[in-house]
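Hi R.,

As promised on Friday, here is the backbone we talked about, encoded as structure tokens. Could you run it through your design pipeline when you get a chance and send me back a sequence?
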């Protein structure tokens, strides 16, 4: 009897230890991780340190993360991270911009997170399109970055101008073009243009929405739909539906034009919303860029990646999940105003009560980034000059798109 009792107690103890181990995988073997990040505002430094401290105190798995803030340095952060990792001195986990990831993949410096994500019970917290965007940056179909926070371009508009023009919020691309035409009018003796076109630096992003809305795509800028989108872009310029300064207008100019009442619509993201409301109150709102047979809008993003030099990748993924879907996501986005990627956080009152946030979330299912190729940076720099030639009649829509296709994919 004693032998049976002893055997029973031994089995019970063994089961208990196994259960403890399964719920606290790292408790018996503490793990220390280093996390690199940058902030856009010095006030957010303390926020990040508090978030990491909370993870350390609550993860229950013996994981301790040390957060080391780096300077963005106009994008120099990415090069500094790459250099450090090549030299063997990089962190375990870091924040990334998607455009930088090909260099890390080519040098085997980051871990493909696909298997981790597929095994994660809450992977559906993140919109499938966001995972697809991560895959679009590399040629092997891997997911090397976990989405963390986003911004989406949408269309700002003045409801009072729409009422004066007798138009409704457009739900299709053709309706959008009609709104641009109808909202080009005089109000109280002042000329108003239907759309604030960004023909200079950064204009390739809203331009891409025209190309895709007309039925084109980034995959083939010479397709019939792509050329039609380019012709539509030319037409709203030559017909006077945009300010005559559009060729040289960049971010500051299109925002100033909208805020001064010069334009009825323009394209930007949520970071402009507070200033818009301060000026116009309820007489400003937004809608997702409409589509036709295709639809696209530009996504600004920051992600989190796992470096291949990390000796404890399972533990590191625990921290990545915390930042992308759980309390780390909630606190960071509610404090900084960045858009969360986690659906449960998006659904909270903090975000759902803001009309501009809701419009942003409506855009995430068709958002993307300009194709990342060896020539993307140069292509973006040269985009304004190429577009200018088409808008001023020095190049046809078809020739313009052929040039843009070649320089983006072939150099």
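Update: got your reply. Pasting your designed sequence below so it's all in one thread:
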């Amino acid at each position: 009897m004693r032998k049976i009792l002893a055997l029973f107690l031994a089995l019970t103890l063994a089961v208990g230890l196994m259960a403890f181990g399964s719920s606290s995988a790292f408790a018996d073997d503490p793990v220390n991780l280093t996390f690199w990040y940058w902030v856009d505002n010095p006030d957010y430094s303390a926020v990040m340190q508090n978030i990491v401290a909370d993870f350390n105190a609550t993860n229950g798995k013996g994981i301790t993360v040390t957060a080391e803030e780096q300077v963005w340095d106009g994008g120099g952060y990415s090069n500094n991270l790459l250099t450090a990792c090549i030299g063997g001195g990089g962190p375990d986990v870091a924040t990334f911009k998607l455009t930088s990831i090909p260099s890390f993949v080519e040098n085997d410096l980051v871990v493909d997170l696909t298997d981790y994500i597929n095994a994660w019970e809450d992977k559906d917290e993140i919109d499938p399109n966001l995972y697809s965007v991560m895959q679009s940056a590399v040629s092997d179909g891997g997911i090397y970055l976990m989405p963390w926070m986003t911004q989406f371009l949408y269309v700002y508009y003045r409801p009072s101008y729409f009422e004066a023009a007798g138009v409704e919020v457009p739900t299709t691309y053709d309706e959008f073009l009609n709104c641009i035409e109808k909202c080009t009018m005089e109000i109280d003796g002042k000329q108003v243009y239907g759309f604030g076109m960004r023909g200079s630096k950064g204009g390739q992003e809203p331009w891409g929405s025209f190309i895709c809305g007309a039925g084109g795509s980034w995959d083939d800028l010479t397709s019939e739909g792509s050329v039609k989108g380019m012709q539509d872009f030319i037409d709203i310029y030559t017909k006077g539906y945009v300010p005559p300064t559009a060729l040289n207008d960049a971010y500051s100019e299109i925002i100033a034009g909208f805020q001064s009442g010069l334009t009825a619509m323009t394209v930007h993201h949520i970071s402009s919303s507070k200033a818009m409301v301060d000026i116009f109150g309820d007489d400003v709102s937004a809608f997702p860029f409409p589509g036709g047979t295709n639809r696209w809008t530009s996504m600004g993003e920051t992600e989190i990646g796992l470096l291949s030099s990390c000796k404890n990748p399972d533990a590191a993924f625990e921290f990545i999940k915390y930042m992308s879907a759980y309390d780390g996501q909630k606190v960071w986005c509610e404090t900084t105003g960045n858009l969360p990627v986690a659906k449960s956080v998006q659904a909270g009152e903090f975000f759902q009560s803001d009309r501009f946030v809701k419009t942003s979330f409506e855009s995430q299912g068709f958002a993307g980034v300009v194709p990342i190729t060896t020539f993307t940076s140069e292509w973006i720099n040269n985009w304004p000059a190429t577009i200018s030639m088409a808008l001023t009649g020095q190049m046809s829509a078809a020739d313009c798109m052929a040039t843009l296709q070649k320089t983006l994919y072939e150099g």
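One thing I noticed while checking it: The first strand starts at residue 31 and ends at 37.

Thanks again,
M.
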